[in-house]
Design a protein that fits this description.
Elements lengths: L17 H16 L16 H15 L13 H7 L1
Amino acid sequence: MATRKRSSRKSSGRKYGKAAGKSVKSAMRRRKRGTLRSGKGGRGGKVKSREQAIAIGLSEARKKGAKVPARKGGRRKKASRKRSA
């Protein structure tokens, strides 16, 4: 019999919590209705892309304290770049 290789992740196995899924689901519904807006305080334009809606949902979940992995450090604001240098 062949033995299975275990993943290095913890026993819980969930990367995202249930609350994160609910938050993304809510953001997707708001996008479909046309009420999801980007930017601080919803002052930006209307969100049309699916990916952006997911990102907004995950961001909201993070703020609420749900189990969501940290953001990838690809893009940072200019001010934070200046502070670290």
